[in-house]
Design goal:
91 residues; 3 helices; mainly alpha
Length: 91
């Protein structure tokens, strides 16, 4: 499902949120695990959230890399010509 990022603008999910769960084996600091379990922290949910954030960060960095030339050209245009609508600004 697409999620709204602004009114009328939707972003494709970075992964299939309806995909089935997969069992894995991890190595985790034993004290960290014991303290997390004592607080009833859902390890699967924490890992999924962390991995999702990493995917989002990677996707953002990739977008910047792919659009670097256009961003540079736009910034140069603004430097030379000013921002669109500058003549109507009152601040």
């Amino acid at each position: 499902m697409n999620r709204p990022v602004a009114q009328g603008i939707y972003m494709q999910p970075l992964f299939d949120t309806s995909a089935p769960k997969m069992r894995i084996t991890l190595g985790v600091n034993s004290d960290l695990l014991l303290k997390s379990r004592a607080l009833n922290i859902n390890l699967s949910a924490v890992l999924e959230k962390a991995l999702s954030q990493q995917l989002a960060e990677h996707a953002g960095n990739q977008w910047v890399d792919q659009n670097r030339k256009a961003i540079k050209a736009y910034n140069q245009f603004i430097e030379q010509n000013g921002c669109f609508g500058d003549e109507y600004r009152k601040f």
